[in-house]
């Protein structure tokens, strides 16, 4: 497993605070970098770079660090992000296709709201990470296209589906107006399938 990733990393959640949070938690447990390295399976130089904000851990690396510190990943992120308690976005602007990002400044978790009227459908996309589609209003047909062929799932308000990383999907409104929230870790689209 690689210690580094070219993708956006968790460090963006806590900015310069992630490394400091890991160092503080390591010291609270009276662990040296070498001990943390042995427990996590990550190299001591890499961990030093992370603590000094010169390297960005992938989510997998952060999970290994959390396990070595005997805490949850969210505990590290929470400690790193303690300075930002709430972030409010009022009526973010619409994209050309009518969708809108509910956290327009980006971040590790991205939520996109899509609205479609009966018969309207989204363009097929696939993402680098799993994506949760939550139906906030209406009835929708969600088409997921794994290598075995397309699968159509009819969902009503309150239902959700997880689309695996790399698997194309799109959805259409069955009746009236439908709203779907796409919740994913990485805000970049791997590819649009026109």
Q: How many domains make up the coordinates?
A: 2
Distance between the termini: 34 Å
CATH topology of the largest domain: Jelly Rolls
- Beta-strand percentage range: 25-35%
- Number of separate strands: 8
* Broad CATH class of the largest domain: Mainly Beta
What are the low-pLDDT stretches, counting only 5+ consecutive residues below 50? 1-15, 187-194
Rounded average pLDDT: 79
Approximate shape:
elongated
State the order of secondary-structure elements, H for helix, E for strand: HHHHHHEEEEEEEE
CATH superfamily of the largest domain: Jelly Rolls
Overall structural class, as computed from helix and strand content, comes to: alpha+beta
What is the helix fraction of residues, given as a range? 25-40%
Q: The biggest beta sheet, please? A: 6 strands, antiparallel
Whole-angstrom Rg = 20 Å
What is the count of DSSP helices, taking H or I runs of 4+ residues?
6
CATH architecture of the largest domain, please? Sandwich
Protein name: Helix-turn-helix transcriptional regulator
InterPro entries: Cro/C1-type_HTH, Lambda_DNA-bd_dom_sf, RmlC-like_jellyroll, RmlC_Cupin_sf, TransReg_Diox_bact_type
Domain HTH cro/C1-type: 22-77
GO molecular function: DNA binding; DNA-binding transcription factor activity
């Amino acid at each position: 497993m690689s210690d580094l990733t070219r993708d956006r990393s968790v460090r963006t959640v806590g900015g310069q605070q992630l490394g400091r949070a890991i160092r503080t938690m390591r010291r609270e447990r009276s662990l040296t970098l070498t001990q943390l390295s042995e427990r996590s399976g990550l190299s001591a130089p890499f961990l030093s770079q992370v603590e000094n904000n010169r390297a960005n851990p992938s989510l997998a690396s952060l999970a290994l660090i959390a396990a070595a510190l005997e805490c949850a990943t969210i505990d590290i992120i929470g400690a790193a992000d303690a300075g930002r308690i709430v972030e409010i976005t009022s009526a973010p602007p619409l994209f050309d296709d009518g969708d809108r990002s509910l956290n327009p400044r980006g971040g590790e978790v991205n939520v996109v709201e899509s609205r479609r009227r009966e018969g309207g459908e989204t363009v097929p996309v696939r993402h680098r990470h799993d994506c949760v589609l939550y139906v906030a209003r209406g009835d929708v047909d969600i088409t997921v296209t794994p290598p075995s062929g397309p699968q159509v799932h009819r969902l009503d308000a309150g239902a959700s589906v997880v689309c695996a990383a790399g698997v194309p999907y799109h959805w259409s409104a069955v009746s009236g107006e439908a709203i779907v929230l796409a919740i994913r870790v990485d805000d970049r689209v791997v590819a649009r399938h026109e």
